[in-house]
Amino acid sequence: MKRTHHCNELRPENLGQTVSLTGWVHSRRDLGGVIFIDIRDREGRTQTVFDPSDLPRELFDQAAALRSECVVRVTGQVRVRPAGTVNSKIPTGEIEVAASNLEVLNIADVLPFPVDDPEVASKVNEELRLKYRYLDLRRPEMARNLRLRSKVATATRFFMDQQGFLEVETPTLFKSTPEGAREFLVPSRINPGQFYALPQSPQQFKQILMVAGIERYFQIARCYRDEDLRADRQPEFTQVDIEMSFIDREDIYALIEGLLKTVWKTALNIDLQAPFKRISFDEALNRYGIDKPDTRFGMELVDFTEEFRTSTFKVFSGTVANGGVVKAINAKGLACATQGQLDAMTETAKGFGAKGLAFIKVEGGDWKSPIVKFFGEAEKAALTKKLAIEEGDLILFAADQWLNACEILGKIRLYCAEILKNQGKLVIPANRFDFLWVIDFPLLSFDKEQNRWYSSHHPFTAPVEEDAGFLKTDPKRVRGQHYDIVVNGVELGGGSIRIHNRELQKTVFEEVLQIPPEETQLRFGYMLEAFKYGAPPHGGIALGFDRMIAILCGTSSIRDVIAFPKTAKGTCLMTDSPSAVSPRQLRDLHIELKAKKENPPAAV
RNA sequence: GGGGGCGUAGCUCAAUUGGUUAGAGCGCUGCCCUGUCACGGCAGAGGUUACGGGUUCGAGCCCCGCCGCUCCCGCCA
C-alpha cells in the first residue's frame, strides 16, 4: 500500500508515528518559511507541514510548487499541533504530519472550477460541473451523496435478503411493447430490420418470474424511458423493483414500511413511525388537489358546492348546475401576494381550462375582491366559518368539474406554500417525512380524444374484487388494487396486485382497453400463454431509487445523486453522447439515416 | 412540441437601464512573508460580452435568428 492511513484517521493517539498519506492537494498555505498543505482523500483531510529547517532544499521547493489537486504521497511524523493552532472544523484538526518526504504522484493543471470551496462550488454552473464530472464528484458534498446511495443500496439488499427475496437480473435488451412511455430502440444486426427495446421497467419479466415460482423477487434495476427530462426524471434511472406471490395489498404495505424504516434508519438515523397513513385517491384530491399530497402543511381544499348551488353569482351556481363543484383554499397570511404572483396563479388555473381565478384578499378588515359584491350574507358567513378567515388571508376559488377544480387548487396550494416558505411564514423541519399510502385509484381513465378507456396504472393491475363485476358495465366505478407510496409530496413508488387469471387479463386487454386480439397476441401473447400454466396470485411495487436518495440527501435534483447524469436534452456533456456513428456501423445494422448528418465521425 | 429564466475574465458576479479604455472578489503568474487553515502583503497577466445578423452616430444592454444550460406544461401505461 502506498499509504498507512487515510486522511480522516489520525488523532493525538497516533503521536510520534511515522505515517504516509496519499491524496489530493486540497489547499496550500505558503507562509514563506513554512508551508502547510492539506491532503484530501475520500475520507477527509489532514494538514501536513513542510519546515525548511528539517528538509532538503529541493523537497521544500517541490512542496512550494504544488498546485491544488495535485496527487501526492506525504510521509512524516504525526505530532500534536502547538497550542492555539488547533483547527476545530475538521476531525483531524488536533494533529498534523511533519513531512519528511514528498512524492508527487501526478501534477494537476489549473482547475476549471474550485473543488475546495463548498460555497463557490455549489454555485458553479451545472454545465461545467457535468463536463468535468470527475472534479465535481471530488467535492465532499457529492462524494457524500454517492456514499449514501451505496449504503442505502446495500441496506436494501440486506433487508430484502432477510425477507426471503431473491435478486434476479432481467434483460435490458427487451421487446418493444408500445404501451405507456416511449421506448429506446436497439437495432438488431443479426435480424435485419428488427429491434430490441430497452425496458421501461422489468414489469413483465417480474410477473413471469412469479409464474416461474420464484415467489419473492427483487432487483435494483436500471430502467429506460425516452421521454422529456425533469429535475426528477432521467432517461435512465434506477428502481427498487419488487414482486411477491401469494400476497394481498397489506403484505406489500408491511414490507415497504419495513424497508423504508430500515433505509431511513441507515441513512439518517431517523426512526419512522409505521404503519403509514392511508388516504384514498378521492380524499387526496378532495383535500389536497393532487394524488401525491404533501401533508406537512395544511391549506386544505374546502368544498362550497352546496353553499353556492343557488347563489346569485352565476359563475359559481352555473358550474354547480352543470355538475361541477366550487372549492376554495385559504392561503393564510398571503393577502400580501403581489399582482405578479396572482397572475402566475391565474395562469396555472387557465392552464387547466379555467376562465380565471377568483380570489379575496382580506386586508385592513375588508374583503378586497372583484367578486365579493355578488356574495350574500349567508355565503360570506359560510366562507368565514369553513375557511377560518382572518385578517391577512388570501382566499382562492376554483369552480369547475370535480377533478379539474381539485387539480387547479392543488397546484395553487403548492405555489402558495412555496411563497410562504420563502417569506419565512411557513417553516417545515428538514427532518420531517410525511409518508402515506394513496389507495383506491380508479382502475381506468377515459380518453376523450380517442374515445376509449385506458389503464390509470398499467393493464396488469387487478380490480378491487367487489368492483370487478362492473368492468364491462360501468368501468368508471372500478377501483384498482393499486397503491402509491408518497413522502412529502413526492411519489416515491407505486405498484399493484396483478391480474393472474388469463381470462380476466384477456378481457381487460380486448374488451375494456379495446386492443385488437391480434395485437394483444403480438405484444403480450407470451404473458397470456404463461398464465395458462399455473400463475400464482401476485403483486408488487417499484420504488424510485434516485428520488429516494435525493430525498435522503436533501436535494431537489436527482442529478445530484447520479454519478454521471444526462442534461435536460438527454446528452452527456462529459462524453459528448449521443453522437454520430460511421456509415459502416449503420450498414451493419441495416439502417439508413434520414436525419441530416451532423459532424459525422471518420469512418471506422 | 409549447412557455419562463440564464449565458460578460478560469470561477462567482457587477456595469448607474443605449454613451469614455467593460469592473470587483476568488483563482492564476511573479516577488515578499516561519504557525496558517477563506493565511497575509505588493505587483501583474487575463475579455470576439455564447454565436450569427439587424437597428443606431454609438449595442454587454434594443430587435431577429441560432446554440447551450435550467425550470415548468405537454409527455412519463
Q: Termini, distance in Å?
A: 41 Å
Instruction: Assign the structural class, choosing from mainly alpha, mainly beta, alpha/beta, alpha+beta, or little secondary structure.
Output: alpha+beta
Biggest β-sheet: strands ordered side by side in the sheet: 6-9-10-22-21-20-17-11
Unreliable stretches, pLDDT < 50, 5 or more residues?
A: 597-604
Mean pLDDT value? 93
- What is the tally of helical segments? 16
- The total beta strand count reads 22
Q: What composes the largest sheet? A: 8 strands, mixed
Give the helix proportion (percent range): 25-40%
Rg, please?
Answer: 30 Å
Task: Give a structural overview.
- With 604 residues, the protein is α+β, with helices and mostly antiparallel strands.
- The longest helix is centred in the first third of the chain and has 23 residues, at 140-162.
- The strands form five sheets. Strands 6-9-10-22-21-20-17-11 form an eight-stranded mixed β-sheet, sandwiched between helices. Strands 1-2-3-5-4 form a five-stranded mixed β-barrel.
- Residues 597-604 have low confidence and may be disordered.
- A hairpin with a 7-residue loop joins strand 7 and strand 8 (195-197).
- It has helices spanning 57-64, 118-121, 126-131, 133-136, 140-162, 203-211, 249-268, 281-288, 314-321, 339-351, 377-387, 402-422, 502-512, 517-530, 545-553, 583-588; strands at residues 18-30, 35-40, 45-50, 71-80, 95-106, 166-167, 185-187, 195-197, 216-224, 236-245, 277-280, 302-303, 325-331, 358-363, 366-368, 394-400, 435-439, 444-447, 452-455, 482-487, 490-497, 538-544.
- The chain is built from 16 helices and 22 strands.
- 29% of the residues lie in helices and 23% in strands.
- Helix 5 runs antiparallel to helix 7, helix 5 (140-162) crosses helix 15 (545-553) and helix 13 packs antiparallel against helix 14 (517-530).
- The structure holds one RNA strand of 77 nucleotides.
